[in-house]
Each structure stands twice: as structure tokens, then as C-alpha cells.
Amino acid sequence: MDSPYLILDYIVSDPFVEGAEMTLLITAVSLLIGMAVGLVLALMEESRFPPVRGVALTYLWLFRGTPVLFQLIFVFNVLPSFGVLFSGFTSAVLALGLNEGAYMAEIMRSGIQAVGRGQRTAGRALGLRDWQVMRYIVLPQAARIIIPPVGNQFIGMLKLSALVSVIAVEELLLVANQTASANFRYLEALSAAGLYYLLFTTLFMIAQSWIENWARRRGRRQAKRPLSLTQRLLGVTSGEARIR
Amino acid sequence: MKQIRLRALVAVTALFWCVTPLASAQEAAAPKDLIEKGKLTYGTAASFAPFEYTKDNKPTGFDIEFGAAIAKKLGLQPNIMNMDFKGLIPALQGKRVDIINSGMYINPQRAEQVDFIPYMKIGNEIVVKKGNPHKVTSRDDLCGLRIAVTLGAIEETYAREVAKNCAAAKKKEPQIITLPTAQDSALSLRQGRADALFDSTPGSIELVTQLPDVYQIAGKTFEANTQIGIAVRKGDTEMKQAIEKAMQAVVKDGTYASLLKKYKLPASGSLF
After folding, report:
1. For B176, which residue in chain A has the nearest alpha carbon?
2. pTM
3. What torsion do the CA atoms of A167, A170, A171, A173 make, to the nearest 10 degrees?
4. A168, A180, A183: residue with CB nearest B179
5. Distance between CA atoms of A20 and B198, rounded to whole angstroms?
6. Would the ipTM clear 0.85, i.e. be above it?
7. Does residue B180 have a cis peptide bond before it, meaning omega lies within 30 degrees of 0?
8. Pairwise CB contact (< 8 Å): B179 & A174
9. How do beta strands B114-129 and B99-105 pair?
10. pLDDT in tens, B26-82
11. What residues of chain B lie within 8 A of the CB of A188, using their CB?
12. What proportions of chain A, in percent to the nearest 5, are helix, strand and coil?
């Protein structure tokens, strides 16, 4: 069969569609785990207690200090000798999620720190407790700030999912390799997989710009309200409480 | 005085370079189109004992020593490129290696992509965990079980045939787990991620001898007449003839037979 038709044939074939679904599933679950772990770690890093900070920093050191592929193979091949036998899929999302958590932690921490100190002071001035300041004032603003780097991580995770082909999880790259090794049409099989990855990346990028626009409009709605003469005379012109 | 000493030095050097070629064991002309001049670059997946495997960080095995002997007959240095099995044929076609020397089984699909020079015939075995918990006596008993295989290797082809036969007999198809190396398959079986694996007869014997409490062979040898060969690019007659000549020389001087004995391969597998 001609190359282009074979590529299209592969793209709509069952194994490739199922492989694509598995890739998306691994990406989504790993990211959820990563963001949950990242948030916990970021808050731990900001804690007042040194032991809590120490635990967080050790986690970051371990998971950023070794390659993802190493962690993947470790979870899959080494843990069983300690009596812990996870399936291929579980090993994949566990390793990818925990690794992602380390990187998400740093992103979230930078987002939290980017929210001006004045915001926290204003919050405390209003009588809110520390955890309420974090929950109602700091985190919502930090969430908007970190949308671009988190979007980056989303797209990166989509590609990292290809690594799990070495632990026999039937995702897109493994399906492409199996198809190619059966009839040696490497160009067509790998092109089909490549097109799927490009498609998903494009969708992610579009979704990211939508979310950024929504967040920007939301922020603007809350800030810009019509000011009365009294407010302007008294100099209370900004929409945010700011103490100089 | 200096003039005489200089001339003597030149004469000795010239003599040395004339004598050395005569002293080498080169018996066949080296092909001209080599990836790296003076070296026979070959691809191998060094995870298939006893044909190619790593010991003390060096590749060793029947194919490795056979390859070295063939290279010597051609007056070349062997240059080993160790890679995943599934990458061997693309590497050959992409001109990253001159030949494939990796105990590659000859089958019709591969014969369409590359030309083979056969040098041995071997059979295959089913390996299961010690105690044979699933009571496997032949390939027909593998329906519904999990088979670990190397991606792209002949074992994968055999496993998919088993799946087809199970489907035709209306039984549950086996789950085929494709892994990068034969070591991964053996580890999967040991950990309980797979119920059986396929391996060559010599490889299975090696596995069972090394770890008799973990593995055992189930059933009888199957596909006992499969040939393995060195692969060259399709249409590369110059390389094919050079390797064939060198191979004949290696067989003639007894190296082939002594290697068979060294790696405990059956003499009945010899094609010469």
C-alpha cells in the first residue's frame, strides 16, 4: 500500500486508537497525581517548621535528581523484590505522577511567591487567619499566574508518557513499534504515532490559551468597577487594597 | 654515520610493512563499502545468551566470537554496536551497521527486508516458573495465559501465532507482553507478571542451568529446524560474498566447531 494511505489506515486502526486512548489516560492520571503532590509539597516548603521543609526538600532532591526513565524502571523492576508488585499501568502513573509532583511543586511555589506581600497583609488586616489568607486570597491569584508553566508541563507529560513503552504498557509508541516490527513499515507506523502526538499537543495548546483568556477576563471583571466621585476625590482609585 | 643509520631505519621499516600483511590471517577480500574503514561494524542485541550477552561489562557469546573470527578472516577489526533487537533491521537499512550478527532467525518476512547467510539451526522452548503452576505441556496450553516476549523477535511472531490458534479454537487469547530485551522477559516471568516465555533451546537450557529453582522448560522443543543467519542489506552481494567466504574459512579451520563446543550448542545444529 502507498505510504500516505497506509499512514491514514494506521491512524484509524483499532490498536492505534486504543493506544492513543491509553496515552491520554496515562497523561491525565499522572498530571492529577502530580498536581496534588505538587500542591502539598509547595505548601510544605513554605511551612514554618524546619522538619516539614526538610522532608519536602528531600523529596525534590530525590525525584529531580534521577531520570524519569530510571524511576519508571525502578518502580516496575526493583519494587517487586521488596514484595510490591504494581501492574504496568500503575507503575507508570505512579512514577510519572511522583516525578511530576517535584516539578509542579516548584512551579506552584513560584506562583505563590509571585502574589504580592501586600495581598497577605491586606488579608490579615481584614481579620482572616493564615490558612484562610492562603485559601481565599493567595492560591486563586497564584493559580492564574502559573497557567503557562503548568500548560507546559501538560504538554511535556504527553511526551513523557511515551517512556512507558519500555514497561510494556500498550500506549501509542509501543503500538507503533509493534506494528512496525511486524511488517517493517517503520516510516508509516511511526508517522501515524507522531501525528497523534502532534494532534494532542495542538489541542492542549488551544485549551491552554482558552483557560488563560478566561482567567484574564475573570480577573479584569473583579478589578474594574465604575468609581464614584467620592471615591475619586478620596483617592481610593485602585480596585485592589494596596498598602504602600 | 647518521646517513647510514637513517637509511637502515627506513629499510627496516619498509621491510616490516611488507611482511606484516603476509603474517595476518586475512583470507578473503574485505568489502569496500564499510561504515568505518578497517572495521566490520555489526549490530547485535547483547541480551540473548549464549549467542550474545554481556559479562563483566563486555559483550561475549557465540555470535560475538564468531563475528570476531569472521572479521579477522577479512582483515578487519570487529566493531560491536549493542542495541535493542527491534532496532537492528532499521539500523542495517539505515546504513548504521554493515551486518547484523545477533542470532537472527530467518523467516519470510525478514527475508523480504534483508539477505541472510545462515550458519546454524536451533529449536525453541517454552520456559515457565519452577513447578509449572499452569501445567503447560505444549503451545496449545498457553491460551488465556500471559506470554512475555522480546519486541520484534521471533518469539513475538510465535506468540502471535499461538494467539491466532487460540482464537481459531474459540479459546481465550493469550496476553502478549512485549519487552525490550530477553532479560526483561525472564524478569517478568520471575516476578509473576507473565506465565511463560519463549526462548531458543540453548538459551532456555542456559536459563534453567543458571537458576534451576526459578525456571523450568515445559513441553517439547518446537520449530526445531529454524535457521539463524547473519543479515546483510538486500542486494549487497559484495558484502554477502565476503562474509560467506570468511565464514567458510572459519568453519574450515575448526573455529566454528570449537565455538559450538565452548558454548554448549548441539553439534547437530551445524549447517556445514
Report:
1. A168
2. 0.77
3. 70
4. A168
5. 29
6. no
7. no
8. no
9. unpaired
10. 777 778 888 888 899 999 998 888 899 888 888 999 999 999 999 999 999 999 999
11. none
12. 85, 0, 15
Contact A184/B at CB under 8 A: yes
In whole angstroms, what is the distance from residue B62 CA to residue A54 CA? 53
- The one-letter amino acid at A150: V
What is the least distance, in Å, from the CA of A84 to any CA of chain B? 10
At residue B7, φ and ψ (nearest 5 deg) are: -65, -35
d(CA A40, CA A32): 13
**B11–chain A nearest CA distance, Å:** 56
Which chain B residues touch A if contact means CB-CB below 8 Å? 86, 89-90, 109, 112-113, 151-152, 156, 160, 177-180, 184, 187-188, 191-193
d(CA B73, CA A235): 95
Which domains are seen in chain B, by residue range?
A: 27-122+226-269 (3.40.190.10), 123-224 (3.40.190.10)
Asked whether the beta carbons of A36 and A167 are under 8 A apart, the reply is no
**Can you tell me the distance from the alpha carbon of A101 to that of A106, in angstroms, rounded to the nearest whole number?**
9
Q: Determine whether the interchain pair B152/A168 forms a contact, defined as Cβ–Cβ distance below 8 Å.
A: no
Asked if CATH classification 1.20.1250.20 holds for the domain at A3-234, the reply, yes or no, is no
CA trace torsion A129, A131, A132, A138 (10° rounding): 120
Q: Which residues of B touch A77 (CB under 8 A)?
A: 184, 187, 191
